[in-house]
Write a structure and sequence with these properties.
about 20% strand; 5-stranded mixed β-sheet; about 325 residues; 13 helices; 7-stranded mixed β-sheet; alpha/beta; globular
């Protein structure tokens, strides 16, 4: 029987990085303040255990962090680069979009920088305001050549992060920071991986398919419970886990069964990744649909501070969308 330890999300991330450092002598970790443990303590104790040449701080330059990661991985190394907040990944976009993602393609597979994993805390946290609350997965998913991953909890975080670190493609690993301490699970102590590109059905159902990722799964779990308790609606809840490439097969098979779909995420609704899910399901499942697909997302505004509770796509907004598609299908 596999031993496990109660971990929250940040200690699960720490456990994954520790295993990566232990099993891969080329693996290094760098970013702003990571040698001190990082602002969320994800790298706590790693410099002390593995040395300052493998876990070290960088200048405050996200573009420099990304560029250094590309160069190190291009020489065959494995690197875990931290962007302190996902909101500040935008200065690194030139390196991510024009270098990291195209490195293998432009050389005809003669060289690559697949050893890059970029970690970044994302999403609402209750008090982050404009610059510490954003969810940039849709921007990143528009970039062929990288993978984009977002876990929903500690077990997923450890397994998906180890898969990302060992992937042959560069990965941007987005961590819902509201879950760092609030999400607690019994996490296996062993080295394990969860495959990228595979969604997971968290709850099987027959009436409506619900799709989300990352921290939004906590909200959607509440919504599907309310739908069952108050309306007798059986929801099939799916966690995409990987945004790019995403698992169209699992979602489409569910939609063909239920005939209805609700997609929810924190990021603004216009051109959010939910739009890609909706468009793909419209193409793949049109003849099965019994109601218009619903999106329950953030609003098209900068992320508000004092109005955060109004901005977020809550369980009640999702419940309304669930009942709406059920009513339409009658």
């Amino acid at each position: 029987m596999t031993n496990s330890t109660k971990m929250n999300l940040f200690t699960a991330v720490n456990s994954a990085m520790r295993i990566a450092l232990e099993t891969d002598p080329t693996c290094i970790i760098f970013g702003e303040d990571v040698a001190f443990g990082g602002v969320f303590r994800c790298s706590q104790g790693l410099k002390e255990d593995f040395g300052a040449d493998r876990v070290f701080n960088t200048p405050l330059s996200e573009n420099g962090i990304a560029g250094f990661a590309v160069g190190y991985a291009a020489m065959g190394g494995t690197c875990i680069a931290e962007i302190q907040f996902a909101d500040y990944i935008f200065p690194a976009f030139d390196q991510i979009v024009n270098e990291m993602s195209k490195f293998r393609y432009r050389s005809g597979n003669q060289w690559n920088c697949g050893g890059v994993t970029m970690r970044a805390p994302c999403g609402a946290v209750g008090h982050g305001g404009h610059y510490h609350s954003q969810s940039p997965e849709a921007y990143l998913a528009h970039t062929p050549g990288i993978c984009v991953v977002m876990p929903r909890g500690p077990i997923q975080a450890k397994g998906l992060l180890l898969s990302s670190i060992r992937s042959k493609d560069p990965v941007v690993f987005l961590e819902p920071k509201a879950l760092y301490r609030s999400s607690v699970e019994e996490v296996p102590d062993d080295d394990y991986e969860i495959p990228l590109g595979q969604a997971e059905i968290l709850q099987h159902g027959t009436d409506v398919t619900i799709v989300g990722w990352g921290g939004q799964l906590r909200t959607l779990e509440k919504a599907v419970r309310l739908a069952k308790q108050h309306h007798g609606i059986s929801c099939e809840l799916i966690d995409l886990r990987t945004i790019l490439p995403w698992d169209t097969y699992t979602v489409s098979e569910s939609v063909k069964k239920t005939g209805k779909l609700v997609v929810s995420h924190e990021a603004p609704i216009t051109c959010g990744f939910g739009a890609e899910v909706v468009a793909s399901m419209q193409e793949m499942c049109f003849e099965y649909l019994e109601a218009p697909i619903q999106r329950v997302c953030g609003y098209d505004t900068p992320f508000p501070l004092v109005h955060e509770k109004y901005y977020l796509p809550t369980e009640f907004k999702n419940l309304e969308a669930i009942t709406r598609v059920m009513e339409f299908a009658k």
